[in-house]
Specification:
By secondary structure, the protein is of the alpha/beta class. It has one domain: TIM Barrel, CATH 3.20.20.150. Helix content is 34%, strand content 14%. It has an eight-stranded parallel beta barrel, surrounded by four helices. Helix 3 packs parallel to helix 4, helix 4 packs across helix 5 and helix 7 packs parallel to helix 8.
């Protein structure tokens, strides 16, 4: 049966970030992921995880200044030092949070940049990141983003991601399969998953159109969930979508999986 993790940058945003851990547990989630934990001290996040008996299953490495449109550095020639600093900070957080997966973002390809140079930079940075992650016992992930949501992002297709990961030649490079981005990029969902399943270490979901609740939507998630189970995928599935009208109000789709059932706050582990 699928295991779902709440993406705390998308769900429970009705509350301040540090309160979302308790809300996730109360709604039935037993794992969370976070694209940008860095505004908050790692030890405080760890305290919230321990308090709610939650597992942090995915963190993104710092991606730069979002207000300037930055989406990471891994594929950007001339910014290798920034990439390495971003990687070190990300590894420090996953270490503190006992998280085993770190997503490193490729970045927005500079206008007019030589594509061969971008690929060489990306492959070299991925090889470096994979080796550093292996020492820590952390899987390093890369994820294609669709051109409509992330114009100019270097990595757009799963086949491209697989090719470049294999070019880096390190076994600790893994793929992150975001069903929403794949559909928005026009990929055949089931076929894409089957082809790349051996290298997929994390899955994320959202509905199309609108990046809303996954069900109902234009994606046949019931069939995909069965495919994931039948393939032997035993990782977490990140719920990275924007609720239409409140997080809990929109969780009816997940009721068959034990999500959306409110537990009394007093019943949280360690609270008596």
């Amino acid at each position: 049966m699928p295991r779902f993790a709440a993406s705390l940058m998308f769900l429970f945003t009705e509350a301040p970030f540090l309160m979302r851990f308790a809300l996730a547990w109360r709604a039935g989630f037993r794992a969370v992921e976070c694209q940008n934990p860095y505004p908050w001290p790692a030890d405080e996040i760890r305290r919230r995880l321990d308090q709610e008996n939650l597992e942090m299953v995915l963190v993104n490495a710092p991606a730069g200044e979002g207000e300037k449109g930055e989406r990471g550095f891994a594929a950007l020639p001339g910014r290798e030092d920034e990439f390495r600093a971003s990687l070190e900070r990300g590894l420090a957080y996953v270490r503190a949070l006992s998280c085993s997966r770190l997503h490193v973002l490729a970045g927005i390809a500079p206008a007019g940049a030589d594509r061969a140079e971008i690929e060489r930079t990306y492959v070299a940075n991925l090889r470096y990141a994979a080796a550093k992650g292996a020492v820590e016992g952390v899987r390093v992930l890369i994820e294609p983003l669709n051109p409509a949501d992330a114009p100019g992002y270097f990595l757009n297709r799963m086949a491209q991601a697989r090719r470049l990961a294999e070019a880096a030649g390190h076994p600790n490079l893994w793929l992150q399969y975001d069903v929403y981005h794949a559909r928005m990029s026009g990929e055949p969902l089931a076929e894409t998953f089957r082809r790349h399943a051996p290298r997929i270490a994390h899955i994320q979901i959202a509905g199309v159109p609108g990046r809303r609740e996954p069900m109902p939507s234009g994606i046949a998630y019931a069939d995909l969930f069965k495919l994931f189970d039948d393939s032997g995928y035993d990782g977490w599935i990140g719920c990275e979508y924007r609720p239409r009208a409140g997080t809990v109000e929109g969780l009816s789709w997940a009721a068959p999986f034990g999500i959306g059932v409110r537990a009394p706050l007093g019943d949280r582990p360690g609270r008596g």
